[in-house]
């Protein structure tokens, strides 16, 4: 799916496994999620801060898309779109290249 295994998740497209915990930063999310597993069942899903590694609250569900679907030049656009400060966010339409995205 294009995700890179790391010791500690701090960016989109990464995952880490420690015992029954799976930390994952989905390519299309604005924050990382911690999946607590017991055997082959999900015990809990929690958003967490990649800076402090602390829980930010429960996640009802997540959608994990292949990281490879986001070409490198479009990842920056996804990060800009995730900015909470809408007043200082650039107009994404002005940043998009002209042409077919699947090229």
Q: What is the CATH level 1 assignment?
A: Alpha Beta
Low-confidence stretches: none
The helix-and-strand class reads alpha+beta
For this structure, what is the CATH homologous superfamily? Penicillin-binding protein 1b domain
Domains (count): 1
The number of helical elements comes to 2
Over the alpha carbons, how many angstroms does the gyration radius reach?
15 Å
Give a short account of the largest sheet. 6 strands, mixed
User: What fold name goes in the CATH topology slot?
Assistant: Penicillin-binding protein 1b fold
In which range does the helix fraction lie?
A: 10-25%
Quick check: average pLDDT?
A: 76
GO biological process, one term: nucleotide-excision repair
Organism: uncultured Thermoleophilia bacterium
Protein name: Transcription-repair coupling factor
GO molecular function: ATP binding; ATP hydrolysis activity; DNA binding
């Amino acid at each position: 799916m294009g995700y890179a295994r790391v010791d500690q998740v701090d960016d989109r497209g990464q995952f880490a496994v420690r015992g029954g915990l799976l930390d994952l930063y989905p390519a299309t999310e604005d924050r990382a999620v911690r999946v607590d597993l017991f055997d082959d069942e999900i015990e809990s899903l929690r958003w967490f801060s990649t800076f402090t590694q602390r829980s930010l609250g429960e996640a009802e569900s997540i959608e994990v898309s292949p990281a490879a679907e986001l070409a490198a030049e479009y990842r920056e656009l996804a990060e800009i779109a995730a900015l909470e400060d809408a007043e200082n966010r650039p107009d994404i339409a002005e940043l998009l290249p002209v042409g077919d995205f699947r090229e």
